[in-house]
Amino acid sequence: MKDVFARLASDFLSAIIFLAIYLITDNIILATSVAIAAAIAQVIYARLKGQALNYMTYASLALVVGLGAITLLTHDPRFMLAKPSIAHFAIGLIMLKRGWMLRYMPPLVVETVPEYVTAAGYAWAALMFVIGGGMIVVASTGDLKLWAFYITVVAGGAKILAFAVQYVVLRLIVTSRKRAAARA
After folding, report:
1. CB-based contacts of 120-123 (< 8 A; 24+ apart in sequence)
2. Mean pLDDT, to the nearest integer, of 114-130?
3. 6-20 as b/e, with b when 16 or more CB fall inside 10 Å?
4. DSSP state, 152?
5. DSSP states of 67-128
6. Which residues of 127-165 are buried (b: 16+ CB within 10 A; e: fewer)?
7. CA distances, 126 to each of 70, 120, 149, 158, 162 (Å)
8. Residue 34 CB burial class (10 angstroms; 0-12, 13-18, ≥19)
9. Structure pTM?
10. Would you say 105 and 173 are in contact if contact means Cβ atoms under 8 Å apart?
11. CA distance 171 to 160
């Protein structure tokens, strides 16, 4: 779990840096420039350490540099604020693959309710699209406080709630099916 949070922090480092500097200084040029530099430095550091970089790393770098350049040219932070929505759309597309979630489930769940796990995978994809769409709407306002609230409380809370609901529902269904099988 610690590794997951470290990866998320790494993936969103440029957005975190951008938001922090912009909120502290109210300087869009400085915040964007430092965020771009941080993204480039992350890739250089990983390469120097000999770490394998995947497609998503380079795609994220391209987004930060591209959207950052547009932000610098227009002096409009909304382009940088929209970056996480693109990540949510990409993840949502990946989650549309049938059965993607099965590999993350315990064998008992996979053997007992694979169809529900597949449905949950599609529900997760839909959630990513909804969160991404909401993020674009919020980013278009240019309100950093609203964006920060949305990305942390709304998006984060929705994912935690979805995980909890999925856990409870799958547990209830598996338990019910195991009891029915025991009676038969």
Report:
1. 120/166, 120/169, 120/170, 121/95, 121/97, 122/95, 122/96, 123/162, 123/166
2. 96
3. eeeeebbbbbebbbe
4. I
5. HHHHHHHHT-THHHHHHHHHHHHHHHHHHTSTTGGGGGS-HHHHHH-HHHHHHHHHHHHHHH
6. bbbebbebbbebbeeeebeebeebbeeebeeeeeebeee
7. 29, 10, 21, 12, 11
8. buried
9. 0.71
10. no
11. 16
What is the spatial distance between Cα 149 and Cα 81, in angstroms, rounded to a whole number?
12
Quick: pLDDT tens for 141-179. 888 889 888 988 999 899 999 999 999 999 999 999 999
> For residues 64 and 114, is the Cβ–Cβ distance under 8 A?
no
* Residue with the two structure tokens 């993350």: 104
CA distance 184 to 115: 21
Classify 50 as helix, strand or coil: coil
Tokens of 108: 């008992």
